[in-house]
Design a protein that fits this description.
hydrolase; 49% helix; Nucleotidyltransferase, domain 5; DNA-binding; nuclease; transferase; 37 helices; DNA-directed DNA polymerase
Length: 925
DNA sequence: TTAGTCACG
DNA sequence: GACGTACGTGACTAAT
């Protein structure tokens, strides 16, 4: 069949009835002012709105069930006979939902005697015959039999696409065998009898073995298990009837033609009026999008496609009445952007200065809480400050009291930009925030590290808006003032804009989430992690100040000794900490061999270069290495950490960045507690200074080989998967398999090489890199890699597949759907491209591991609470979690932590977590 | 501000 | 045949 002009390309068939029930049961009760229940109507409306704005479909229709009876009741009167009548609260919503569809100007179809599923089957068949793609918007398993090369299903509530693999997962067979399986196992919800005693698993196994139902029934007497054979022989007719019940009719004599589903525009005014009548103000606001002018009463008159400039109207809130009005408006809208202004960046030390809210584009307010009336430093005393002359501001107590219920109200969505910070600030004031979105995290899951996620940058990018910069309001450098000293008029303009922009960014970004299939990543991996991180940062970790200071003195003393020795050896004084001066000493004054220049023409004095010289017997570079180690430990850890101890808590509180890395990992800073030394003996002393409170111990639990397990899983490497199931020393087994030697009595060198290759795979292996790592020749490294690929052929496939994915999309996906962007993958510079290719290969592995530990962290607090355990999460170090645990609860806590970590994901390999206790972090390993 | 170095997974 | 490399971070110092 050849396509002719006007043929549909992509057809959306929405299972209206299915969605109504799911929306009704999935959403909390909602009602119109007149008392009519509308939760299903609301759910249906938002779904349809998203669907229509996100899809490339050119044909759309919503299909409903017409009545309770269909032709199936003629075959089997009991079909769906036991279904209770629709819930009382749902009945009045059926006609309203048909009105919704009409308001969207989308055709709806229903037909007496046929179920919606049959109509969907019929139209899908017609569409495929005309060369179109079909998306069935439903999660009903009865429709899975229709999935095919050109037909997919979309579960909008879970944002999941159902194709052949998902069908296989559900029924254990390909879509074309689904009816056979259903015929055997039946369906209690629809009263389809099936064969007694046979469930999905057995049915799939039988169909897999015999091919289809008819063959199975014909050869039933061959079945070995006597009981199963008997039931099949006795119930053959029941199975055939069941098959007729579940098989969808593809040739219903429909009256509406497929062509009549061609997508057509809808009248926004009609729709807005209808929605307003249902009380759906938040949807009306969304319809208006960025085109809404705050003064225009009906927000929907402007066409959404043309973004009219927003007329910003910001209000300074200085009376309780006005504050109450804003809270009421936010509650009514169901959505509010909010932002806090403070005196600093550290949420534990910063003081709350004010709060801004935004309820619609351009409509925002600022509530000052603590603004210093005095002029900024440097102003003349006689200068009458506008702030001093301004109106009185509301007190902290009353403002917080009025805001608390709004922030705690689960039915009002609070939108923040980096809301982690605002939640921490509010937590200091005793307020909790429930039901929130974060535009920074939205931006991060959508665009990864392809650009920054600061609000200024996003405002320019998505709204073409230049924001007022913090520096414009507070200055920079030594002239910088804190926000509480900013005059109120300037504070209003800056702070209210922040909330306003946040709200408008939310409109743009949240809409992209579904279209770009990032709902699940955002809602299950990123957003729920925020409160977990808030608690971790607030908890902090105790460090032994005295021990660190003693270490610092010790390191300092030894450095001074080494400096004397080094300068004596050099024959002159120079700054040992200067790579430039050291390079001259080594390669010019002393004329040592093998000096290499860095790309800027300096002598390279990295550890590998110094080690090589030391190995040749040169003393000076060896002592520089020692000096550098001590210098690093003293400067970065002992001294810096002591300076970071919070005066109030006596603990160190890091900051975890959630929207920074390219792979989805967290990062830690101020101080970085993810790079505390452990590999060297001297370094470990620092780890021993991280201690538990009296009566507590530290628990360190880490995933064993999580990245290599991810490799085995995503690449489907049978040899490695088996090895992980066997639970033995993975590097030794790799060595045995690749080099063909027994594990017993293995040369440790072979194991070391196998380990290096295993790591190399994770990094997107190259012969050069492996050679460098092992200190062997390029050729030898290449022969190892070839041997590895020969033993595990799936790895090569995975690497090629991943690079292809990166080239096609500009990103690769982790097993949990996170996008890892791969800029440079098409660069004309070969080195750049190779770099991007290795990063692409690493992406699903490192990113997948990051996803898994995030899942564990999200589940852990509730799992601990469920067993009444008081342990607190303190740190995450990529594959390790550190908790502070009451001594009496050690064993129970370890069990919960390991269980949660190990069950955080279901892969083709087991996940293993190992945990230890200690009074210090160093002892807990 | 950038480059070099080195701490971690 | 040359390119110039293991993946992902943050903090410190010297030099600009």
């Amino acid at each position: 069949m050849t396509a002719v002009a006007g043929d549909p390309q992509h057809v959306f068939l929405v299972d209206g009835s299915g969605f109504i029930f799911r929306a009704f049961h999935g959403l909390p009760a909602m009602s119109r002012p007149d008392g009519t229940p509308v939760n299903a109507v609301y759910g249906f409306t938002t779904m349809l709105l998203k669907l229509l704005s996100d899809t490339d479909a050119d044909h759309v229709a919503v299909i409903f069930d017409a009545g309770r009876l269909s032709f199936r009741n003629d075959i089997y009167p009991e079909y769906k006979a036991h279904r209770p009548p629709a819930p009382e609260d749902l009945v009045p919503q059926f006609p309203l939902i048909r009105d919704v569809v009409a308001a969207f100007n989308v055709p709806s179809v229903e037909m007496e005697g046929f179920e919606a599923d049959d109509l969907i089957a019929t139209y899908a068949t017609q569409a495929v015959a005309r060369g179109a793609r079909v998306t069935i918007v439903s999660s009903d398993k009865d429709l899975m039999q229709l999935v095919g090369e050109r037909v997919e299903m979309l579960d909008t509530l879970k944002n999941r696409t159902i194709r052949a693999p998902e069908v296989l997962e559900k029924f254990g067979v390909a879509p074309d065998k689904v009816v056979d399986v259903q015929a055997l196992c039946g369906d209690p919800t629809d009263n389809v009898p099936g064969v007694p005693g046979i469930g999905v698993k057995t049915a799939a196994q039988l169909i897999g073995e015999y091919g289809d139902l008819d063959s199975l029934l014909a050869r039933a007497s061959e079945i070995k298990q006597p009981k199963r054979r008997e039931t099949l022989l006795n119930n053959a007719e029941l199975a055939r009837i069941s098959r007729e019940l579940v098989r969808l009719k593809c040739d219903v004599p429909v009256t509406e033609s497929l062509d009549s589903f061609a997508k057509r525009p809808f009248d926004r005014q009609v729709l807005a009026d209808f929605l307003a009548a249902q009380g759906f103000k938040s949807i009306v606001a969304r319809l208006g999008g960025s085109s809404v002018t705050p003064t225009a009463a009906p927000a929907v008159t402007a066409p959404v496609a043309v973004a009219a400039p927003v007329v910003a109207q910001y209000e300074l809130v200085t009376s309780v009445e006005v504050l109450e009005a804003w809270v009421a408006e936010a509650t009514r809208m169901g959505t509010v952007a909010f932002d806090t202004e403070t005196t600093g960046l550290d949420p534990l030390r910063a003081e709350l200065v004010g709060v801004s809210l935004a309820t619609a584009p351009g409509r925002a307010c600022y509530i000052p809480i603590k603004h210093d009336a005095g002029p900024a430093q440097g102003s003349l005393l006689l200068d009458p400050s506008p702030a001093a002359a301004g109106p009185d501001i509301l007190g902290r107590e009353v403002t917080l009291a009025k805001l608390a219920p709004l922030l705690a109200d689960a039915s009002v969505l609070k939108i923040g930009h980096n809301i982690k910070y605002d939640m921490q600030v509010m937590a200091q004031a005793g307020l909790t925030v429930t039901a929130f979105d974060d535009t920074m995290l939205l931006s991060y899951v959508l665009d990864g590290a392809s650009h920054g996620h600061g609000m200024d940058e996003l405002a320019k990018l998505h709204l073409d808006h230049d924001t007022i910069k913090f520096a414009d309001v507070c200055g920079t450098g030594k002239n910088q003032i804190t926000f509480d000293r900013v005059p109120l008029d300037k504070a209003l303009a800056y702070a209210a804009e922040d909330a306003d922009i946040t709200l408008r960014l939310h409109g743009v970004l949240k809409a992209r989430l579904l279209a770009e299939r990032m709902v699940t990543v955002y809602e299950t991996l990123e957003r729920p992690l925020v409160p977990v991180i808030v608690a971790m940062e607030a908890a902090g970790i105790k460090v032994d100040r005295t021990a660190l200071m003693a270490l610092s003195a010790e390191f300092g003393g030894r450095m001074a000794e080494l400096e004397v020795q080094i300068q004596t050896l050099a024959g002159r004084e120079f700054n040992v900490g200067s790579p430039q001066q050291l390079g001259k000493v080594l390669f010019e004054d002393m004329s040592l061999p093998g000096g290499k220049k860095t790309k800027t023409g300096q002598w390279g004095t990295g550890a590998d270069a110094l080690e090589e010289l030391a190995a040749q017997g040169h003393d000076l570079p060896a002592r520089v290495l020692d000096w550098r180690q001590l210098s690093k430990l003293k400067g970065t850890y002992t001294d810096a950490l002591v300076a970071q101890i919070n005066g109030r808590t006596g603990r160190v509180h890091t900051s975890f960045a959630l929207a920074l890395t390219t792979t989805g990992r967290l990062s830690s800073s101020d101080p970085n507690l993810q790079n505390i030394p452990i590999r060297s003996e001297e370094g470990r002393k620092i780890r021993h200074a991280f201690i538990a409170e009296p009566g507590h111990v530290l628990l360190s639990a880490d995933y064993s080989q999580i990245e290599l397990r991810l490799v085995a899983h995503v690449a489907g490497i049978k040899g490695l998967i088996q090895a992980f199931h066997d639970g033995a020393d993975i590097h030794a087994i790799t060595a045995a398999q690749v080099f063909g030697v027994p594990v017993e009595g293995m040369d440790p060198m072979l194991r070391r090489r196998a380990k290096a290759i295993n790591f190399g795979i994770i990094y997107g292996i190259s012969a050069f890199g492996l050679a460098q790592q092992l200190g062997i020749s390029n050729g030898e490294a290449k022969s190892y890699i070839d041997a590895y690929f020969g033993r595990y052929p799936e790895i090569r496939d995975f690497m090629e597949r991943t690079k292809e994915e990166a080239r096609a999309n500009g990103f690769v996906l982790t097993p949990f759907g996170r996008k890892v962007f791969t800029p440079g993958i098409k660069d004309k510079n070969g080195a750049m491209r190779a770099f991007a290719e290795r990063a692409a290969i690493n992406g699903p592995i490192q990113g997948g591991a990051a996803d898994i530990i995030k899942r564990a962290m999200i589940r852990l607090p509730a799992a601990l609470a469920a067993e009444g355990l008081k342990a607190r999460l303190l740190l995450q170090v990529h594959d390790e979690l550190v908790l502070e645990v009451p001594v009496a609860e050690q064993d129970a806590t370890r069990a919960v932590v390991c269980r949660v970590m190990e069950s955080a994901a279901q892969l083709d390999v087991p996940l293993v977590a190992e945990a230890g206790f200690g009074t210090s972090w160093g002892d807990a390993h």
